[in-house]
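Quick log. Single chain, no ligands specified.
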Amino acid sequence: MNFKIAKKEFLDALSLSSRAISSTTPLPSLSGIKISVTDNSLVLVSSDSNISIRTSINNNDKNALIINETGEIVLDARYLLEIVRKIDGEFIQVETIDGTLVKISGGNSEFKVNGMEASEYPNISFDIRDNSPFKLETTLFNQIIDETAFACSEKETRPVLTGVNFKAENGKLYANATDSYRLASKTIDLDSDLNFNITVPSKYLSDIYHSISGEKEVTIAIDSQKISFIFGNTIIDTRLLDDEFPDTRRLIPASFSQKLTVSAREMINAIDRTLFIKADGKNTVKMNIDSEKIELTSTNQSMISSFEEIKVISYEGEPLEISCSGKYLQDAIKAIGADEITISFSGELKPMVVRKEDDDSLIQLISPVRTYR
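-> predicted structure:
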C-alpha cells in the first residue's frame, strides 16, 4: 500500500471516520480504521458495532490523491488521527514498508506505526436493502434533531427512551423524544407515502448531525435492524433500538383552560438566573400567572430564593399557580426558537404545552412538579 494525498482532505475523512471509534470495544481491531486502497480510490471503514462509517475518497483537484500501490491495513485511530494532524506539510504520504509496519510522512516529519492485518477486521456490510429510501434537506434533518433529541432520557433503565422515535404514515414524518417527564414532538410533510416506526439512539444522531454539515441533503434508508444515512461518498449505518416506543400522542391534552403568551427571551433569561438554585439536584420554578404578569420563584433547603416578575403579552383563563423543572422549560423555549411563545395549561397538575403561536408542527410538553411550599 502506497499513496499520497492532501493533508486537509485526509484529515477531514479521518475525523469523520473517528466518530465510530469506541475506546471500550471488545475487539482490538475496532479501535482502528480500516484503510483500503484500490486502483482509483481510498476507502476508510470504522465501527464500534453499533455505528459504522464508510467513506471513500476519489482522485480530484482538491485531494490530489496519487495511488502508487494498492493494499489494505488497519491503523489505530487515535494515533493515525493525531499523526496526520501534527504533520506540518501540505501532503501526506502513507506507505507499508514491512508487513504491517506503516510509514506516514509529510513536510519534515516521519512517523512509523504498527498496524493490523485487514483480515482481522470484521466484515461490515453497507448494503442498502430498503427499496424506498427518501431524502431530506440536511438543514431540515438537523432542525429535527435540534428540536427533539435533547428530550431523550440519559438513563438506560428504559433504553428505548434514549432514542428519537421516527414514525412515517399518511405522508407525514413524526419525530418524538421523551424521558417520561417531558416530550418534544416534531411533524413534517413527506413527498412520498412511507410507513415505518423506528427509534434511533440519540447519541448516534448527534454524530450524524455533525457529519453531514456542509451537505445539501441526506438520503435515508431503513431496514429491520439499521438505518443508513447516505451523503456524498459516505454511508453511516446505525443500529435501531428494539423496544416499542410509547404512544406519546395520548400525553398531549385534548383541551386547555389557560393560555399564556410571553416573550421567549425574557423567560429564558429569568429562568437562567435561577438555575443554580437546586433542591435534591433539581431546579424547580413556581409560576404564579394572571392577566398582567408572571411571578417566577425558586428556592431550596438552604433558604436561597429568587423572585422574577415578567409582564405577559396576553393571558386567557383564571389565574394559575404551577411548578415545573426550570431547565426543562428553558430547553423547550429554546427549541421553539421564536420571539414569542405560548404555553397552554389544563390545570396545575396536568402537562403544559409550549409552542409557537399558530404552529403545531413543533410541540414541547412538560410535566408539572408537585410542590408543598
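The radius of gyration is 25 Å.
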